[in-house]
Amino acid sequence: MEGALTARDRVGIQDFVLLDETTEAAFLSNLNKRFSKDLIYTYIGTLLVSVNPYKELDVYNNKQMDLYMGVNFFELPPHIYALADNAYHTMLAEFNNHFILISGESGAGKTEASKKILQYYAVSCPSTALLNTVRDKMLMSNPVLEAFGNAKTLKNDNSSRFGKYMDIQFDSEGEAVGGHILNYLLEKSRVVHQNHGERNFHIFYQLVQGGEEDLLHQLGLERDCQHYNYLTQGECAIVASINDKDEWKTVKNALQVVNIDEINTNHLFGIVASVLHLGNVQFDSDSKGHALMNNNPELRWLLGVDAHTLQEGLTYRKIEAQKDQVLSPFTIDHAIYARDALAKAMYGQTFTWLVNRINESMENKVRRRTVIGLLDIYGFEVFYVNSFEQFCINYCNEKLQQLFIQLTLKSEQEEYEAEDIEWEPVQFFNNKIICDLVEEKHRGIISILDEECLRPGDATDLTFLERLEDKMGNHPHFVTHKLADKMTRKTLERGDFRLLHYAGEVTYCVVGFLDKNNDLLYRNIKDLMCQSKNAIVRECFSTMDPDNRRRPETVATQFKSSLLKLTEILMAKERFPYQDEALIRHQVKYLGLMEHLRVRRAGFAYRRKYEDFLKRYKPLCPATWPHWRGVPADGVEVLIQHLGYLPNEYKMGRTKIFIRHPRTLYATEDAYERCKHELATRLQAKYKGYKAKGEFRKQKEAATKIETCWRGVQARKEREKRAWAVKVIKQFIKGYMTRGQAKITDNSEYLAFVRQNYLNRLKDNLPKTVLDKTTWLSPPSVLTEKSTGNSHNKTCCMRPDRHVVFLYRSIFLAPSPQLQMKLITSSLFKGKKDSYPQSVAQPFVDSRININPRALQMIRNEHIKYGVPVVKYNRNGFKPRPRQLILTQAAAYVIDEAKIKQRVLYAFLKGISVSNLTDGMVVFHITCEDPKQKGDLVMQCDHLFEFLTKLGVIANKQNVIKVVQGSIKIEIQAGKESAVDFGTGQEPMVYKAKNGHLMVVS
Ligand SMILES: Nc1ncnc2c1ncn2[C@@H]1O[C@H](COP(=O)(O)OP(=O)(O)O)[C@@H](O)[C@H]1O
Ligand SMILES: [Mg+2]
To answer: Which residues bind ATP (predicted)?
Structure first.
C-alpha cells in the first residue's frame, strides 16, 4: 500500500481501496486510465485485478521476476509476480497451504496468468538438477494439456475446455518438488460437434498439419483437415492466428518431457487418428431401415479390433433379457449417435489417462511439503446458443464466486473480530440463491435433470423443461418462455430456459441436455474397446465403470460432486485471489469486484499494523521522532493526535490502526512527503557539519604531532650542542691545566687558541715602526716557554729580530696557503654549515687520490691541481657510483677508473650548492645550454670543505658556492627538474624518496 500511496498521482490509483468513491464509474475510470498506459494490474487490497492487454507487454522478463522476489507485496506496482511471491513467502513462513484463485470471463487471460505464475516459480524457487526436471515437467504439462484440452472458441483462440486445479508442491526449503493436477469436466461434445467459428481440440489439427509423412501414412491420415467431418463443422479448420505445425513440435517435445514413452505416444496418436476416422464412418440403411456400416479398414486396424465386432458394436445394441442376449439393430441416426458416443468416450478417457500420466511423472513421494494451488477453470460463458456445457461451466463459476465472496467476507470479518473493531454490515449480492437453484438436492435443476434421465418412459429434453417450469415456477432467477412476462417472452424460444446468474443472464437451449447428461455408451461398444490392441484404449475402457450393473452417475452430478470436493480443498487453504478482465465493460460488476471493494471498504479503507504505521509516519510528530520508546499503539495514538485525526476518522484495533477515508491517509502521506524533504535537508546539513568537524579534529591532531616531533628534533639538537660544548670546554680546561707540559693532544688546541688570541691582539697592537721594540705586546707565558723551551726566547718574542719579522710576515702579510685556504673556508661556511666546526682542525692536503695512469694520460695537457674521491648520484634513479673528481685549471673531471665520465668546464659551472646540515652532499649546477652537458651533478664528498675551498680558489668560483636551507633544486636534463631534500635522522642515509627526490639524511 505504501507503494500505491506514493505512486497514486502517476497513473490512476494502484489500489482501488484508496479510491475516494466506491462507485462503479470511479472504478471503471481508474481501470481505464491505467489500462490506457498499459498498466494492466491493479489491487483491491490483496486481490489483484488484471485486464487482458491482448498484446505482448514487456513486464514478464527475468528482470521483472528478480524485482519482485521477496519484496513486500505493497512496495512495488501491482503485478501477478507480487501475488505469486506473496503466496510463496507466506506459505514458507506459516508452513501452510495456499491457493491462487483465478476467475474471469472466457478469454480474460486466466490461463495465461496461471502460466505466468508457474513460470515465476520455475525461475524464482531454489532448485537442483533433480528438481529442474520436476520443474520442466510442470511447465511442459501445459502444452500437452492445452493441445488435448483447449480449442478455439468465439471468445478465445486458446480457450480451456476443461477445468484445471494444479497443486505445486514445495518442500520446507521452498523448492518445488512435485505437482498434481485435478481436471474437471472436459467439454467432450466438441469432439463430434463444433459451432460455427469454433474448432475441435487443437491436437487434431496439429497432427494433420504437423505430423510427419511417415506418421500420417502409418495412421492412414491425409494432410488435409477438410477431409475429416469432425474438423470441418465450424468451418475454420485453418486460422491465421494459430500455427498448428509449430505447436505440433512443441507438443511432441513436451510429451517426452512428461515421460510418455514412444509406444504410448504412438498409441495416443492412434487414438487421435481413430477419432478422425470414426467421424468419417458412414452408415447406409438396408431395406428394413437398419444401419449398415461402410468399410473402414484403417479404423479397424488402429483400434485393433476385428471388422465384424466393430460393425456389430456400431450398428446393434446388445440387450440383456434375463439370461439371453439379444442384438437389436440401430437406425442410421442411432448408429451415428453410437459412433459419436464412442468418439467422445474414447477422447474423454484418453484425456483423463493423460492427466494421470502427467501426475505420475510429477509425483513427489519423498519430502514434507506444503502446496500452492492454482485454479484455472473455464470462465463464465455466454454464446448465441448455450447448451449443457455452458450450463455446467457457468454453474462452476457461480460456485467459485460464492466461495470467493465467502472467503472475502470471512477474512474481512475475521480481521475485524481479531482487532476488536465493530463489524459494520455491507450490502452485497450473495449468489447462494443461484447456486441453490442449480444444485440443491431433490429440488435443484441438476436433480430434476437426473430424474428425467433415469425415469422410465419417454423422457425428452422438453419434458425436462416442463418439469423445471413446474418446480421452479416462481424462482426469481429462473425464467422460461411460458413463465415470462410478455416483454421477456419475446427474447425466449419455447425450448429455452434462462438463468439470472450473478454475472448476467444466460439463456440455455434444452436440446441435448438429457443425452449429454446421460453420456451413454452402449455396453457392447465398451466391451469391444476392452479388447482393443491399443493399450491406452484397453486401459481406459476397462477402468471406466468397474461396477457394470450399476448405472453410472450422470455427468452433471459427477461434476457437482467434483466441484464440492474442490470447494472443500480450497476452503482448507488460504487464498490469493486474482481476477481478470476481458473487456472493460460492465464485467466489473459481473466479477463481483464492486462487492469485493465494498466489503473491503465497508468500514475502513486502510489498515496498518501499529509498528508499520509508526515506522513510516513517526517523523511527523516531535514526540515520536526519532524514536518512540513506548508501546507502538501509544505512539500511534500520540502521533495521530498531533496530526489532528477526528475521532470518527479512525479506530484503534488490537494490533492495527484502521483509517476510514483515503483522504485522511492521503493528507498524512502528503505531510510525510514534505517532511521527508525537510528531514533530508536537515540530515544533509548535520552530516556536512559532522564531516567538517572531523576534518578539523584531524588537522589539529596532525599539528600537535608535528609540533611534538619538531620539539623532539630541536631538543635533540640542543642536547648534541651542549654535549659538544661540554666536550670543548672540558678540553679547553684540560688544555689550560696542562698548558705548561709538553705539547700533547690534550693541550695542543688550547695552545693554538692562546696563540691565535695573542696574534689577533698583536695584529691590532703592532708597533708603529719596525724598530720599535718596546711596544711589542708580550706573549702569554705558555707561548714563550713552550715555543723555545728557554728564557732566551722570551726576548726573542719581545724583540723584532729575524724571528719576529718572519712571524709577522708569515701570519699577517703573507699567511701560509694552508691558513689562507682555511680562512676562505671559514668565510664560506662558518655559521652556515653544521659540519664546519669539526672540519676546522683538519688540515687540507694537496690531493687525496692516485689517479689511474690512463686517465692521467687523457688529461695530460692540463695541470692537475687537486683530486678527491666522491660518490656520484646518477640522474636516473640517483644510483650511487664511486668516482674520482679531479680539478684542473679549466675543468672538473669525473673519472671512473681509467675513463673520463664527465668534464665540467668551469665556464659552465653556474652554481655550487650544499646543505646547511652535516652531510657531505654537493650539487654542481651546470648551464644546460651546453648540449654536451648532462645536467646537474650530485655528489657526496667526505672532504667537502677542502674540496669546495680548492674548487672555489682554482676555478674562482667562491661567489657561486651557496649553503642552502631546505631542498636543492636540480636539473636532471634540460627542462626536467628534481630536487635533493635534506633532513636529520638517527643515522645518515641517502635514498630516492617516493616523491622522486633524492633524500639525504644526516
Ligand atoms: N497478460 C497477457 N499478456 C498478453 N496477452 C494476454 C495476456 N493474458 C491473456 N492474453 C491473451 O489473451 C488470450 C486469452 O487468454 P487466456 O488466458 O487463454 O484466457 P482464459 O483462460 O481466461 O480464457 C491469450 O491467448 C493471449 O493471447
Ligand atoms: Mg483458459
So the answer is: 104-111
Helix (H) or strand (E) holding 218: helix 213-219
Question: Is residue 105 a known part of a binding site?
Answer: yes
Selected residue with higher pLDDT from 430 and 702: 702
Cα 443 from Cα 103, distance rounded (Å): 28
The single residue listed with the C-alpha cell 463443422 is 233
User: What's the 3-state SS for 482-528?
Assistant: CCCCHHHHCCCCCCEEEEEECCEEEEEECCCHHHHHHCCCCHHHHHH
Q: Is 107 annotated as a binding residue?
A: yes
> How many C-alpha atoms does 239 have within 13 Å on its Cβ side?
20
Q: What is the reported pTM?
A: 0.65
Dihedral sign computed on CA atoms, order 557, 559, 562, 566: negative
C-alpha 21/C-alpha 34 separation (Å) is 17
77-111: pLDDT as tens digits: 899 999 999 899 888 888 888 889 888 888 889 99
Q: Which three cell numbers stand for residue 246?
A: 509449430
Which are the catalytic amino acids? 106-107, 111, 156, 159-160, 379, 381
Residue with the three cell numbers 648532462: 934
Name the residue with the closest Cα to ligand 1, atom 16. 109
Which cell numbers in the block locate residue 133? 526436471
Ligand nearest 241 Cα, by number? 1
For position 427, what pLDDT does the model report? Answer: 63
Contacts of 697 (CB under 8 A, 6+ apart): none
Among all ligands shown, which has an atom nearest to the Cα of 50? Answer: 1
In 217-273, beta strands by DSSP E: none
Using alpha carbons only, give the angle 944, 946, 952 rounded to the nearest 5 degrees.
Answer: 95
User: To test ligand 1's pocket by mutation, which of 52, 116, 199, 243 has the most ligand atoms within 8 angstroms of CB?
Assistant: 52
pLDDT tens string 186-228: 999 999 999 999 999 999 999 999 999 999 999 999 999 999 9
Least confident of 103-107, 143-147, 561-565: 103-107
pLDDT > 90? residue 717: yes
The three-state secondary structure class of 380 is coil
C-beta of residue 592 within 8 angstroms of C-beta of residue 502? yes
Residue 626: asked if its preceding bond is cis (omega within 30°), the reply is: yes
Whose C-alpha lies nearest to ligand 1, atom 25? 158
